[in-house]
Amino acid sequence: MERSADWMEQARGDLEHARFDVQGRFYEWACFSAQQAAGKAVKAVFQKLGSWTRHTSPPGTRTPTSGELPGTCTRGAKRNGRWAMRRASLGSVRIFSPRYTRQQVLDALQAAVPRLRGLLPLRRVVLFGSYARG
Amino acid sequence: MVYADPPRPDAFSVVRRAVGLRNLEPHVFAEGEFRAAAARWRRQLEEGVVL
User: Fold this and answer.
1) Residue environment code for A6-41, b if the CB has 16+ CB neighbours within 10 A, otherwise e
2) Which range of residues forms the domain containing residue A118?
3) Chain A nearest CA to B11, separation (Å)
């Protein structure tokens, strides 16, 4: 399944998020968001080119199956006339786990929303994702 | 979070500072912006907790 447009759309969204981070002076998050945008844009290009391989196969020997995304790839090289991508090193990536419980997040949001209503004309506030699932 | 139009360039930072949870990633839209992107957020809204 060719999903380069999806990857590029998400890359644009991440880049927009990075701009918001800069405006808000969250510079470390801006770097992270920009890196995410760049990575997804590269994945879009590779998919649009029509071929990549994962580290489990010899370069250039197979094309992705449905639902298979190059999520662990960061480096590419052209071999045998086709693009091949190598497995990423995960050693440089730090994963931040949530520090709060679902209830702590809900309590903090419920306390913040009245303050926020004085700063922004809020219409809708929804908590979603891992914190909402608990 | 969705707020009334018009879009404000400081909306994201206002929310970020008011909420104050470092690991929480806010998504902040003016109503017009949200309408344009609503289809992408359908699943999150369905599974989310409305405050």
Assistant:
1) ebbebbebbbebbebbbebebeebbebbbebbebbb
2) 102-133
3) 7
